[in-house]
UniProtKB/TrEMBL annotation:
Its main location: membrane. It comes from the Bacteria. It is a multi-pass membrane protein. InterPro entries: Bact_transf, EPS_sugar_tfrase. This is Undecaprenyl-phosphate glucose phosphotransferase. GO terms for biological process: polysaccharide biosynthetic process. It comes from Skermanella aerolata. The keyword Membrane applies.
Amino acid sequence: MSLQFPHGNVELDQISVVNRPSFLVDHRSFSTEVVAVCDYLALAIAGSFVLAALHPGQGSPWTANLSMLAISMLVFMLCARMFRSHAESALKALPGHILRTLAALCASLVVTFGLLSALAEPGHVTLPMLGWWFLAAAWLIVSWRCLVLWFAGKRSFRSLLAKRTVVIGSAPFLREMSAYFGGRTDTGYDLVGTFDTASEVDRDSATPYIGGMGNLRHWCVRHRIRTVLIENAPANPAASERILTLIDGLAADVRLLGRASIPEKPEQALISRFGGWVAVQVRDKPVRNWDELAKRTLDILGSGALILTLLPLFGLIAAAISLESPGGVLFRQRRFGFQNEEISVLKFRSMYVHKQDVSGAQRTTRGDPRVTKVGRILRRTSLDEIPQLFNVFMGTMSLVGPRPHATAMKVGDQLYHEAVAHYAQRHRVKPGITGLAQINGFRGEVDSMEHAQGRLDNDLRYLGSWSLALDIKILLRTVGCVFGDRNAY
């Protein structure tokens, strides 16, 4: 049995070949994320209660206690992953799930005690205190686990957790899909908008929205769409290609729907069904669910710590820039950010004010006369980029991700985002201060199509293989690249 797609028929057994390995596929539901957050809160609340009860008005200062709680939560996060306490499959067996979580909790407290003993001598952290901490956290975890799972089984609660979804296709297709979603509340999807490919009218009205393709991407970004379902009409194969191009940079699951006869519950991870329509997932959200929170936590903690540590360096660089040439210390530039939206990126000014190019249309070349002496040192060591730590802390950028490019940046005589096919797909994650392309030698001036394509290929590789461990590896390798790369000037 095969499905009809723009480039020909695809057999279902061929589709299953492109499935990612099961340990890389994130099928965790929102209920699982709520369970995980409740577990971390239980650990923190129990620890705070035990510290306050056993050491009232005395003991270590609150900063030491706060540090201990933060360390314990980070260790518990790692232990929970090792014991697979928050895996979707674990929720199906409540007793086993609770035992896994309690084992992870016990291991995390033991490791925390070992770390604190090795780094300092906290007199108030004793084995009896850890025992009470474990009992209090275990009681909260079991109680909240039962409460969350009870709520998750309620139909009214499941509807609040459904993925925000839009449907795109012909009028008959939209009517059928609207009827399908309208008559069911247990699909896990919340249909918030429909787009008619034959309509030339764009209206920004209340949902369900019915209109053309003109502002499709902006509408999806504004309404936080998580899933896009597209009718794949064999009679008009170019329509699907056009829609996929329009939403290239959208961070959402994208599925093509066609008519086919398959079992009611297909085993392939990339295949699902909506009534009489079979959906093949052609694009997925690179960073999702709990991983989004983990990456954002790394960004906040990492950027916050670096900002505090580098404050004296910020002052020295600002003084050097001001002494060499008149003008502001910081340089702001509009660049492409998450989901292709424009953001304002901060840098230390490295050029003379009257010569700098805010648009980014003019490339910086080796020996560029626009660059100041101090600016040359800053660019060579990438110190001009460190104000972007504030972008990371505020949430418009990440520590690791594809580098944000200026909106008018060119490759030869063409704009970068027009010269390189599928360029916008790199914007499905937040842009970063450093990335996989930068540590693999694609840093500095983009002076050829080969260099531009190489950057994009590395960025797409990063999207396809993202993990928190990969982010940390890139950050560590960046230190060596900054001082050993001759491509930056």
